[in-house]
């Protein structure tokens, strides 16, 4: 295919919100990236264009059968004036694993990363510079063929949109309350739980609402077969520090393989903290809590990076973890990982990627 990305600049620049108004996913930058696919041509016409609504036939398959996937990552404007991404090649590799599961044709990962860089450079004035803020990047693919048969679409759009986001933690990281879900399940092995696809999130809303009603902010999912093994929390992977050994559920096909999860496991190994990826039952966690061996628990994901868990509720019983406070290890992991992302902590892993201007693959 022709890999030349064309850039059409917007003539209508939007006003930028103040850092205090940012929140999450409320504002979008001046440009977006689009590339089309049809079965005869493959992927074609990669382009940066002004941010705008798209027009789709009401019969487009994405609306009816949910053939769609997405990714999420962040760009940071760091103290040295550079723009940094965190392991973007991992996001594009996972995008293609999700694509494969949903019978969506693979995207050229090198081109997708170049598209991401060009879009970020085009809208670099949108990257907020205040502490803890960043530019959230959302690549996604939708099936656009107008045809109601249940089969894989012959047409798609790959798009990237970007949103400046505020600090996840206004006053430093603080622990959340989690509801252990015993009625609904998120995914089963062999299903699509390990793909970042829309239906997983639509299916989680009901349980999320009930968790809110119980005063919790997120759901901890148990496995769909035995209803006893821990899977993940909302849109985060989950870790438990039991007596100094950090345990996280193994990638079993029904949980999402988080890039933050992988980074935390590598960091722990680097710090010589014992870490185990294995099956972990809710009973084991409750027993560890009762015996005073559950030192801390935390979720991991791009949005919050580390989200300490201060309290679990399961079948009507509350289990307060670490006195409801942020654990020492959670804080250390948060400081180290956000430091690497923002270029203030030495990155011995080669995770941080500086976005540099290049004329590579570009035509204006
Ligand atoms: C995106 C996501 C995660 C976290 O993945 P990261 O790559 O760390 O952001 C975890 N669980 C689910 C269900 C997700 O969608």
Automatic annotation (TrEMBL):
Its cofactor is pyridoxal 5'-phosphate. The keyword Amino-acid biosynthesis applies. It comes from the Bacteria. SUPFAM superfamilies: D-aminoacid aminotransferase-like PLP-dependent enzymes. Its EC number is 2.6.1.42. InterPro entries: Aminotrans_IV (IPR001544), Aminotrans_IV_CS (IPR018300), Aminotransferase-like (IPR036038), B_amino_transII (IPR005786), BCAT-like_C (IPR043132), BCAT-like_N (IPR043131), BCAT_family (IPR033939). It is an enzyme of class 2 (transferase). It catalyses: L-valine + 2-oxoglutarate = 3-methyl-2-oxobutanoate + L-glutamate; L-isoleucine + 2-oxoglutarate = (S)-3-methyl-2-oxopentanoate + L-glutamate; L-leucine + 2-oxoglutarate = 4-methyl-2-oxopentanoate + L-glutamate. The modification N6-(pyridoxal phosphate)lysine is found at residue 196. Pathway: Amino-acid biosynthesis; L-valine biosynthesis; L-valine from pyruvate: step 4/4; Amino-acid biosynthesis; L-leucine biosynthesis; L-leucine from 3-methyl-2-oxobutanoate: step 4/4; Amino-acid biosynthesis; L-isoleucine biosynthesis; L-isoleucine from 2-oxobutanoate: step 4/4. GO terms for biological process: isoleucine biosynthetic process; L-leucine biosynthetic process; L-valine biosynthetic process. GO terms for molecular function: L-isoleucine-2-oxoglutarate transaminase activity; L-leucine-2-oxoglutarate transaminase activity; L-valine-2-oxoglutarate transaminase activity. It holds the Pfam family Aminotran_4. CDD domains: BCAT_beta_family. PANTHER family: BRANCHED-CHAIN-AMINO-ACID AMINOTRANSFERASE (PTHR11825:SF44), SUBGROUP IIII AMINOTRANSFERASE (PTHR11825). This is Branched-chain-amino-acid aminotransferase. It comes from Paenibacillus catalpae.
């Amino acid at each position: 295919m022709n890999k030349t990305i064309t850039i059409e600049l917007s003539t209508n620049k939007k006003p930028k919100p103040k850092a205090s108004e940012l929140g999450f996913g409320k504002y979008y930058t001046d440009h977006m990236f689009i590339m089309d696919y049809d079965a005869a041509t493959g992927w074609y016409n990669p382009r940066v264009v002004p941010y705008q609504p798209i027009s789709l036939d009401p019969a487009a398959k994405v609306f009816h059968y949910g053939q769609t996937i997405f990714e999420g990552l962040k760009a940071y404007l760091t103290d040295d004036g550079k723009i940094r991404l965190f392991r973007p090649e991992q996001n594009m590799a996972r995008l293609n694993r999700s694509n494969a599961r949903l019978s969506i044709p693979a995207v050229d990962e090198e081109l997708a990363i170049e598209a991401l860089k060009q879009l970020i450079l085009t809208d670099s004035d949108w990257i907020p510079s205040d502490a803890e803020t960043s530019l959230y990047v959302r690549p996604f693919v939708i099936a656009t063929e107008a045809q109601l048969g249940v089969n894989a679409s012959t047409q798609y759009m790959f798009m990237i949109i970007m949103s400046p986001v505020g600090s996840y933690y206004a006053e430093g990281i603080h622990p959340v309350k989690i509801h252990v879900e015993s009625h609904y399940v998120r995914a089963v092995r062999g299903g699509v739980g390990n793909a970042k696809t829309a239906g997983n999130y639509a299916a989680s809303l009901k349980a999320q609402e009930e968790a809110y009603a119980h005063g919790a902010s997120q759901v901890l999912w148990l496995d769909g077969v035995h209803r006893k093994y821990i899977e993940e929390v909302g849109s985060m992977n989950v870790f438990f520090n039991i007596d100094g050994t950090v345990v996280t559920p193994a990638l079993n096909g029904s949980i999402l393989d988080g890039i933050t999860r992988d980074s935390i496991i590598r960091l722990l190994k680097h710090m010589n903290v014992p870490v185990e990826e294995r099956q972990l039952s809710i009973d084991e966690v409750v027993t560890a809590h009762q015996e005073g061996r559950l030192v801390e628990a935390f979720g991991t994901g791009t949005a919050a990076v580390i989200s300490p868990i201060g309290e679990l509720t399961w079948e009507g019983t509350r289990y307060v973890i670490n006195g409801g406070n942020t654990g020492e290890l959670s804080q250390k992991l948060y400081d180290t990982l956000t430091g690497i992302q923002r270029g203030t902590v030495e990155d011995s892993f080669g995770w941080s990627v500086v976005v540099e201007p290049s004329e590579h693959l570009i035509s204006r």
